[in-house]
Amino acid sequence: MPGLSNAERAELQQELLALEAELRTQLAEGAEAAAPVELDQTRVGRLSRMDAMQMQAQQKAERERHQLQLSKVVVALQKFATQDYGYCQQCDEDIGYPRLKARPEASLCIRCQSANESLSAG
């Protein structure tokens, strides 16, 4: 499989930079939602407080997903400097433009990703 062209690399790098900015914005905006839920029952009823706590848990999980994705994006951007972007970290083969177009932060080729998922599922 041929490696990435210069145009494809530049396009993917721009997508990663845009994704990084978007994730940083989402994390900054989500910081308020992760604040502790107030336990003052004179102001908020029990069911409302329980709803707020559930929403807080969902926001926390979403924040963690965003943080994990952001760390993958940062690592992918660092790989541009060392010319390692676009290579599978497990088998060192080209990841392939279609996969990187779908997930520019991907660090594994489809074959290795599938193998890892089948190992963790079984």
Describe the fold and architecture.
It is a single chain. The protein contains four helices and no strands. With 122 residues, the chain is an all-alpha fold. It is 65% helix and 0% strand. The two termini are 30 Å apart. The model has no long low-confidence stretch (mean pLDDT 87).
Outline the fold blueprint:
Blueprint: H1 6-30, H2 46-81, H3 97-102, H4 110-121
Helix pairs in contact: 1-2
What's this entry about, in short?
This protein is mainly α and 122 residues long. The protein is 65% helix and 0% strand. The chain has four helices and no strands.
CATH homologous superfamily identity: DksA, coiled-coil domain
Unreliable spans:
none
| Strand content range | under 5%
Mind telling me the C-alpha Rg?
20 Å
Which features characterize this protein?
single chain; 122 residues; mainly alpha; Four Helix Bundle (Hemerythrin (Met), subunit A); 4 helices; elongated
